[in-house]
Specification:
The chain is an alpha/beta fold. It has 3 domains: about 70 residues, Winged helix-like DNA-binding domain superfamily/Winged helix DNA-binding domain (Arc Repressor Mutant, subunit A), CATH 1.10.10.10; about 90 residues, Periplasmic binding protein-like II (D-Maltodextrin-Binding Protein, domain 2), CATH 3.40.190; about 100 residues, 3-Layer(aba) Sandwich (D-Maltodextrin-Binding Protein, domain 2). The protein has 11 helices and 11 strands. The longest helix is centred in the first third of the chain and has 28 residues. It starts with a helix and ends in a 5-residue tail after the last helix.
Amino acid sequence: MDISQLKTFIEVCETRHFGKAAKSLFITQSTVSARIRLLEEALGVRLLTRDRNNIQLTAAGTRFVPLAKQMLTTWNLAKQSTGLEEESKILFSLGGVFSLWASGLQNTIFKFYRDNPSVAVNLIAQTQEQLFRSVLDYTVDAGFMYDQPQISELESTSLGAIELVLVSTIRDQIAENLMNREDYLFVNWGTAFAVAHARNFPDIPSPSIKVDFARIALDYLLEFGGTAYLAKSMIENELKEDKLFIVADTPVIHRDFYLVYRSNSIKRDLIESLLTKIIQFK
């Protein structure tokens, strides 16, 4: 097995077509077929069924897809790390759930990077489930997420709480009027937020727009107007400039978040250095 076989397998899985995979990889279709055959021989299982114009994953192929992607990720990180070592730099990979990156968290990372010139920082956005797995399998050194892990191999440090406020581009309105409109955006701030949101607003219709990236929600509001729960730390300028308005008499929802890392991490010193620079969200 080699990396080119993994890349080819993943491309075929995504295109479900040997010809399209060959075009995307700039190789011949016969090379695609040969690589898939060699990969199957190395694994001792059949990964794909090859009916004409109908390429499907076998059960073994379905199980192998996430493993193949993970091996490619690990290989790419290894190449980066090896290249950086020649420059006397240490690769420090940090992950974060999508909505956290828009909350001012990046400012802390930039300060950390500025104060550590020997470190190369790799920033990754993932779902919380993906991030747990990435920390466990060493592809991410530490991850910012909403929930504490219940896994013995992982540790976590509480970093405070994000203050989420209901804001709108319409001034002096009540929540009931705004949240029943088609331009109410539901931002995914994690499970605890969803529970608190449902408890505080049990009678509103299911939002027509749901987003994982808080920055997308903010851009939408500024472009088209609407209402959403956003982190107060990310909209201070918009509030000062009267582009957004906090909706009166609505609950502020506080969302705890944590830095999660392996207990036996060899980069513990970098993790502790980062923790000293984390700002407490208010």
